[in-house]
Design brief:
112 residues; Translation Initiation Factor IF3; five-stranded mixed sheet
């Protein structure tokens, strides 16, 4: 019984240690990109922007990189991704099926 209790305690602690961080960010060309959560330091939003793929071969990463470039041009310190969506961009003329492309909506931010 004591071994079972110890084993359960170890498993519970291991699960907590493996839990992902509440916020996730990367740096793209010198711009902080927050894909899950927001920075813990003070900031203010300077614009809301979006980027949509031109073809069904575009990826979410391509759209986030495009937004990071917009952020650099506008003097933003970071990007907070608000939404990642697949949207219909048209109908395939041969197959008659929807053509889906990725779209990312994000806030551009400046740290205070």
């Amino acid at each position: 019984m004591k071994r079972i209790a110890t084993l359960l305690a170890v498993l519970a602690l291991a699960g907590c240690a493996a839990a992902p961080d509440a916020t996730q960010n990367t740096n793209v060309s010198g711009v902080d990109v927050w894909t899950n959560g927001a920075p813990s330091r003070p900031y203010h939003v300077i614009a809301e922007v979006s980027s949509q793929g031109a073809t069904n071969s575009a990826s979410f990463s391509d759209q986030i990189n495009s937004i990071a470039m917009q952020a650099t041009k506008r003097g933003a310190d970071g990007v907070i991704v608000l939404h990642k969506l697949m949207i219909q961009a048209g109908i395939d003329p041969i197959l008659g099926r929807p053509v889906m492309v990725p779209k990312v909506i994000a806030d551009l931010i400046k740290y205070d």
